[in-house]
Amino acid sequence: MTMNLKADYKRAFKDADIRGIYPTEIDEELAYFVARAFVEEFSYSKIVVARDMRLSTPALHEAFVKGANDSGASVVDIGMVHSPALYFASATLNLPGVMITASHSPKEYNGMKLVHAGAIPLTEKSGLKAVRKRIEKGVFASEVKRGKTTTKDVLKAYQKFVLKGYQAKKLAGLKIVADAGNGMAGVLMPLLVEKLPAKFEVIFGDLDGRFPNRGSDPTLSKHQKPLRTQLKKGGYDFGIAFDGDSDRVAFLDEKGNYINSAVIGAMVAERLLVKNPAARIGYTGLTTRSYEESILASGGKPVLMKVGHAFIKEAMRQKDVLFACEHSGHFYFKDFFFTDSVTLTFLYVLDAYAEAKDKNMTFSEMIKPHLKYQQTEDVVVMVKDKKLALEKVEAYLNSLEPKSIKHFDGLVVDFGETWGMVKPSVTEYALKIMFESKAKKTAQAMQDMLVAYIRSIADDSR
User: Fold this and answer.
1) CA-to-CA separations, 171 to 160, 197, 228, 272, 305, in angstroms, rounded
2) What pLDDT, in 10s, does the model give residues 169-221?
3) Residues annotated catalytic, as ranges
4) Residues 6 or more apart whose Cβ sits within 8 Å of residue 161
5) If you average pLDDT over every residue of the chain, what do you get?
6) Which domains does the chain have, with CATH numbers?
7) Confidence (pTM)
C-alpha cells in the first residue's frame, strides 16, 4: 500500500489526542490511515463519526470515513455537533468513535479525539500508541468487505438526556448573553434556548472555521473582549463563552469579569455534595486552592488528578469520582459518562444563581466567598524537549529555596506566600506555567520571573 505521510505527522500524536497544524502535521492522508489503524487495531466493525466546523474538517472527515469503510467498518455519521454530543452518542450507542476537531486550538489546527465504546478516550497508553505504531508499519488489510455509511441525528436525544427532569421555571426573568465564538456552540445553544425560559442573547452563533470574531479559547482575556463589551452595556445577569468544539465554557459576571473556572467548579461541587455526601471530587495542580478547600468544607473527598481531559476521565472511572473540574473550563460528570458537559455545568450554575437572585444577589456577589486567591493567566512557553526543560526549571526553582516541590504531572511548587505549577503541555511542545497567591501582583511577579527563565533556556531545550 502506497503511503505519503507528511514528515511531521508524528508531532500530531499527543498524549491524549491527535492534533496538529493543517496540512503540515495533519492532513487527509493521515486521517485516512488513522481511521484504518483505529478500526483494524481494535477489530471494530462499526464506529460513530462527528466533526466540527473548521475549514479543513470536511476533507479530513471524508478521508477518515473512507479509511474506516476501506477497513471494513460501517460508519454512523452524526454530523456537525459539539464534542459532548459525540461522547453521548458513543455511550448511548455503545460504539467507538471519533470527533474531528482541534478543540480550543487556533484556526490553523485540526485533530481527532478517538474514543472506545462508552466514550472512553484513547490515550498514549490506552490506544493512541498502538494506532501510531500500526501506521508506522504501514500494514493494512487488503481484502475486506467494505463498510457502509449511514447518518443519524442524535441532538434531540442529547437534548432530552441532559434536560431530563430539570425544573426550568425558576429561570424565568434571567437574561444571559452567550458567546458561541462561531464554534459548535452555534449548534448547542439552540437546543437550550428552545427549552429554557431564560432570555438568551447569542453572539457569534454562525458556524465559521475562520474564527472571525475572536480566538477559540474562551478562558484567555484577549478572547473575552466581545462578551465583556456586551455585558458592560448592562441588563444581563451574567455571560458565558465556549471554545471551538464546545467542551469548554467560561463564565463572566454581570460586570464582565472572568470567573476562575475552579470557582464555578466549587459551586457545582457544593450542590452535588448535598445529595452525594462524602463523594470524591476531582481537582488538578492548576485549579485554585479555594476549590479544594470548598470540597473539604462541603464534606467531599478531593482527588488530585493529572491535567488533560483523557487523563481525568480515566482517573474518574478508576476512582469512582462524581465530578471534576479543570482551570481550563472543562467540567466532568459521572452522570455524563465520566466526560465533559458544558450543559450540565451551565444548568448547575443557573440553579445556584436563580436562588441567589431570589435573595437580591448579583452574580459577582454570589461567587465572592470563593474569591480567596488570585491566579495568573497561565502562560505557555514553547520548547522542543519538554523533559530537559522541566529538569532545568526544577534546578532553578530549587535555587530559590521553596518550602516544597512535589512531582505530580509536572512540578508543584510552594513558596508559602505564593504557589503554582509548571507542567508539560498535553497538546503542545511547551511548558505551561501558572501561579497563585492572595495578591495577584505577587503571583504575577513569580510567574514573570519563571517565564523569563524558561525563555532564556528555550534554545537550549530545542
Assistant:
1) 18, 6, 22, 19, 34
2) 999 999 999 999 999 999 999 999 999 999 999 999 999 999 999 999 999 99
3) 103
4) 88, 92
5) 95
6) 9-154 (3.40.120.10), 175-259 (3.40.120.10), 261-370 (3.40.120.10), 374-461 (3.30.310.50)
7) 0.94
